[in-house]
Amino acid sequence: MAKIKEVKMGIQEQIIESAGQIYNYLNSKGEVSISKMKKDLSLHENFAEMGLGWLSREDKLEYTQKAKSVTVRLR
Question: How far apart, in whole angstroms, are the C-alpha atoms of residue 61 and residue 73?
Answer without folding.
Answer: 6
